[in-house]
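Could you help me review a protein record that somebody else here produced? Here is the record exactly as it was handed to me:
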Amino acid sequence: NMGVNQLKWQRSLRSLAEERAGRKCGGLRVLSSYWVCQDATYKYFEVIMVDPSHKAVRRDARINWICGAVHKHRELRGLTAAGRMNRGVGKGHRFNSSGGLGSSRRATWKRHNTNKLRRYR
């Protein structure tokens, strides 16, 4: 009943910066990002991007996992470090309520607040 006045952006500015950089440079893959500086108006982040078609990347066993097609636009699907923080996905005692690795805070809320009435009770 509150309307749209009290709706807040649910993701961090860091994940928003990753998303914008990923859209701008569609041929590169977003690896991660970090905070650089801020002023009264803006926050500045550096986004680390990888060229999956570069031979040095494809030959390096430590980073060539990002060349696979399943890693296209990781930033849009919340798979980078900043995106995972906003999805409530992690390991340890803080994440027991979210159902563990691979689940989300919203999915847990929906699961707890939905009545499952089976046909033959």
Notes: The radius of gyration is 19 Å.
